[in-house]
Amino acid sequence: MPSEPRGLSLFGPSRAHRQAANVVELAFPDASDVEARCRDILQALPAAIYTTDADGRITFYNEAAVALAGRRPQIGSDQWCVTWKLFRPDGTPLPHAECPMAVALREERPIRGVEAIAERPDGSRVAFEPFPTPIHDGAGRLIGAVNMLIDITDRKAAEERLLVLMREVDHRANNLLAVVQATVRLTEAATVEDFKIVLEGRIRALSRAHSLLARTRWTGVDLAQLVADELAGLDGATAARVFMAGPSIRLDPAAAQSVAVALHELATNALKHGALSQADGAVDLRWRIALDGRLDLTWRETGGPDVTQPSRTGFGSMVIQNTILRDLRGEVTFDWQPQGLVCRIKAELSPN
């Protein structure tokens, strides 16, 4: 009978051992050294594999185990696991004598469905899933165990990203619903049909901002792009009478939604009652970063009908004020100059 593989010889002449040797002989019929071939097979496997005797002392390990552990175990002295330090998934220390391999040997049963974290000597950590399995001889006596460690670091990172995404989606959905509720509450009209038209316009403004944010994976929106999207619904001749100027400013999601609502109200008012309702009217929209780090945006209308300050605050103005004050901790001023409305908005770029 050919010599037995070192990785399995600690188990004695068990049935499983003999079967393993037979498999190797079938795979390498011309091999004169089955032990070397077995070691080559185990070394070629990408998974970390090691074996122990019945007392848990390491008897074999492959190079994948060295890579995972970040160290080279001491044959015959290291016990239970090839790793340097162990931790439970919750971060608490896991003594080697309580690790899955130790439990598998102590209780003489395979351990499945558990996870652990290994810390390497250099301080880096790797999450892994072990598969410790006791080995018995032909008489049923425990002679050792084999363990395979699967690196699940990437999987755990993906799971964490998914959890973060789920929490973020829930947070954004709640925020969006709150904005919509406020929009409904602040909307008034003389008839139900007018109410529907006004409300739909405001919700469309939110939808456009939401679509922009989705395209950037909710990392923020450039103000110029937000303005362009909000004014995209204007016909070509009207859009040509809106002049825009300002540096590239990135708004976070909360700021983007609030500014979108404000721009929608200003544009709607200009089309119905202000400068854009007249053929010669125009809007000059400029923005900058103020010295205090806040957004400073000015909407200036010229060439429209004569302007006088209204006797009461309109609902569009209320929407702008409440949105900017509530969501962005900002301030809004309306200057009803004879040549046209001037609205100035100062707000936080990242209110959260």
UniProtKB/TrEMBL annotation:
InterPro entries referenced in this protein's UniProt entry, alphabetically: HATPase_C_sf, PAS, PAS-assoc_C, PAS-like_dom_sf, PAS_4, Sig_transdc_His_kinase_HWE
Keywords: ATP-binding, Flavoprotein, FMN, Kinase, Nucleotide-binding, Phosphoprotein, Repeat, Transferase, Virulence
SMART domains linked to this entry: HWE_HK (SM00911), PAS (SM00091)
PROSITE patterns linked to this entry: PAC, PAS
CDD domains xref list: PAS
Keyword Kinase annotated: yes
Name of the protein described by the UniProt record: histidine kinase
Organism field: Caulobacter mirabilis
